[in-house]
Amino acid sequence: MRNILLWIEGTGLGHFMRESGPWTYAVVNVAHILGVATLFGSLLVLDLRLLGRWKRVGLAELASAVTPVATTGFVMALLSGSAMLATKATAYVDNPFLLIKFPAIALGLTNVGVLKLTPAWKARATREPSPAEHRQLAVLGGISLLCWLTAVTCGRMIAFW
Predict the structure, then answer these.
(1) In sequence order, what are the residues at sequence separation of 6 or more whose Cβ sits closer than 8 angstroms to the Cβ of residue 86?
(2) What separation in angstroms does the CA of 32 have from each of 39, 76, 92?
(3) pTM over 0.85
């Protein structure tokens, strides 16, 4: 793990982040916060809908609205988070929150893939899910909330370790 973090820190991005002045890190940090907020805010609304809230709001319409917003937030968070990590990657070598955050993100993304493969998700624009499909969507929504809440919480706790 240390060798990977050493390599990340030694990249051109790491050098740029460390040598370009304090405002660069501050701006990248703000971009990361905005990206995470955009991602989580979008997912929160969709996951709560999957869990059964706002049943009058069509799942297809809601998903069409929030998916591109969530994707934009994820890309912002990924790019800015990579830059922040490269700044001082080796400082995180013993940080347990980093070791929890990345698997939580991976599980969250895997959950998205599983959701997209379900028949209920594929047919969301053409029919209402059956009761069994509602339960399946609710489980996936709950898993999503757990993964992303874990990632966000651990991301915040990294700074305090």
Answers:
(1) 8, 9, 11, 13, 14, 17
(2) 10, 6, 18
(3) yes
The Cα–Cα gap between 153 and 54 comes to 26
Angle between helices 131-158 and 96-117 (to 10 degrees): 160
| Each residue's pLDDT tens digit, 55-105 | 899 899 999 999 999 999 999 999 999 999 999 999 988 899 999 999 999
Half-sphere exposure of 7 (CA within 13 A, CB side): 4
| 46 Cβ contact list (under 8 Å, min separation 6) | 62, 63, 66, 67, 70, 141, 144
Give the type of residue at 11.
T
